[in-house]
What we know:
Strand order of the largest sheet of chain A: 2-1-3-4
Helix content of chain B: 25-40%
Distance between the termini of chain B: 17 Å
Number of domains of chain B: 2
Oligomer: heterodimer
Distance between the termini of chain A: 24 Å
Strand content of chain A: 5-15%
Number of strands of chain A: 6
Strand order of the largest sheet of chain B: 6-7-8-3-9-10
Radius of gyration of chain B: 24 Å
Strand content of chain B: 25-35%
Shape of chain B: elongated
CATH class of the largest domain in chain B: Alpha Beta
Number of domains of chain A: 2
Number of helices of chain B: 10
Largest sheet of chain A: 4 strands, mixed
CATH superfamily of the largest domain in chain B: P-loop containing nucleotide triphosphate hydrolases
Order of helices and strands of chain A: HHEHHHEHEHEHHEEHHHHHHHHHHH
Amino acid sequence: MQKFIAVVKHEYKKMVFKWSFLIATLMLPILVGVLAIVPAIIFALRGEPTRIAVADPTGKIFARLEKNLSGERLMEKARQAAGEQFKISASQEEELRKDAAMFMLDFKLVTVDPAGKTGGQLRADLLGMIMRDEIDAYLIVSQSFEADARFEFRSRKGGDFISNDTFQNALNDAVRSQRLADANISETQLQELSARVNIDAKGIDEQGVEKESTGTFIASFVIGLLIYITLAIYGQAIMGAVVEEKETRIAEILFSSARPFELMFGKLVGVGLAGLTQLAIWIGSAATLFAILASQTDLGPVIGAVPPITPLMIFFFLIFFLLGFFIYASVFALIGAMVTSVQEGGMFAFPPVMIMLAAFYFCFAVIRDPNSTLSFWISVAPFFAPITMPVRILSEMPAIWQIGLSFLVNAVAIAALVWVAARVYRVGMLMYGKRATIPEIWKWVWHA
Amino acid sequence: MIAFTTDDRHNIFQMPDSKTSDTTLRVSNVTKRFGDFTAVENLSFDIRAGRVFGFLGPNGAGKTTTIRMIVGITFPDEGFIELNGERISHKLQNRIGYLPEERGLYKKMRVLDQLRYFAALKGITRTEADERVDKWLGRMQLSDWKKKKTTDLSKGMQQKIQFIATVLHAPEILVLDEPFSGLDPINVEFLMDVIAEYKSADKTIIFSTHLMETAERLCNDIILINKARKVLGGSLREIKESYGMNLIAFRGTNAEKILSDRALIESVITHADEQELHLAKGVNPQQLLKRMVDAGVTVSKFERTEPSLNDIFIEKVSSESGLNLQSEVYTDDR
């Protein structure tokens, strides 16, 4: 026991007092922030307006198009779109306005008179303007557009899908209002006729208590991702530590001092505690940040969207994180003991990492329907449950017996895996020079 | 031979319950198999306190397998190993100091932390470990490197740290597997000092080597194994004497006639400035010398020599297996 504790301490310190631990601890929140903000910044960076020449022999499109692409009109549309998807408060609307302004697309339309030119001449003229960099794109409105709705649009910025999309919408609107005008229907009439339905969508639990579904989705996703990332990082850390002891031949000194099982299990526990430390730092700092923000600004609507997390849930998260850790860590320890180098280990680490990733993807199925048969089995199955069960608990608390069953199944899986890993570890760690084959490992497990 | 020192460094080894019984380690009818391969077969030997025990044999003979069983890493399939009458177990590991042939340290860890960890695994408390680490580092003039990482140390320094890890817990028995391989000359001297100290403190030292010359210089007792089996064993002196009766180093003139007399001399090996005479059965050196003098040979050198362990090993193994092992030469590569 005394030696076991020495191993745990050693492994814990080795993980935590390392630059990479500090960096990882700091980097994850930064990374998450960056992933959330950078795309918005990059899209906002688009500088110059898109210059479009419009050749409109009918004279019916240009004016409408210009109006539809004006700044005020675009902002209004953005606000409408946002308002339809989320129910938003006044303060959030202000935010959205800013966002819309940030995404604000700038178009500059010029009209080109096609009178007296053949189609070929007109195209040549417009292409010439593009070549002289006077315009970025051109639109040719055909005389018969009202019948076939065909337009010729050529752009140098073919890849700017946001602009293209906006432009197409504006053109669509222009044609539609022309058609309405032809049919003697006013815009106001149309808006009245086509007012959207308004579904008041909220999830409820079995007691009928209302839950915010968007918030649940995000929170479940974050929990699933956090467990997946931590398991992947610490599983591989275990493998690295095992391979190091094998590669540097320290294993021989260690084995002459303590039982192989103490050494392996101590390593799992020590590294697992380091993983818990990191999770605690992340969650603790997120909670602190949240509290500080809450005291500074009105976060009422945001808090309302976060599903209530009870201490019982946190207890279950912890339990399932630990189950997952011991399952994957023993697999990685086993791999570490059978290979000869970290590179070789990376190759063999692929299958367990794929299983982890699959479990993470299954989270989406669980979030969509926490009570389906698939969700039940996937949250009980060993290897998958540690990632999917916490997500399911957060989406909708399953019956306690299901959590109990999942715990039991995974605990049995751990006992079996640790038993196998310990046997492979005992022999594999003293085998130098060549990687163990599967039949050899089979022999170690059953005859060692 | 080894110079015995009497300064205070001996204090490091003072153990209150040090046993002084004759046999400390007993290996009894030990067999170890790996699948179909028998690594050690029915091996028995005793190791006595206060003597240096050499465990000899070519690479692949089964030395490391036996040593791993002695230090409790693996266990015999048949037979048993006892330390002071107690079967080897994980509990006994705290009393054994083991320097493996393949030596390693944690690359990115500070010297002090590694030594503390190795000490903790041998059941030494933190304060006790710190005290001993200071003492040993001081003795090796490595005190300034205490807080440095392994990667900052030279190879020779790393070897020193590995020694410290072996002896830090003041073991009763020192088990060294090929301790001299790859060692720099300063560390060789240092290791010899440590072995001498252990010997004079009446502790047990066992080391394996495939270098016969090293064994000849250091050992009191030896065992020679080949292909999993014991070839010969016992006190080095006795072994040499039992094999050393019939070799004469000779230099002289006018001796051609006598040297070609096969009734007296079985064979002659001519070296640069002398000849090695292998006496025929039943002939003793006295008789030969008398015959030489009588025949008018001018003798400038006539000396009974001992065969080297290497010679003994080759003779023994080739006579047993019928193989010619002359091609396998065991030389000290230091």
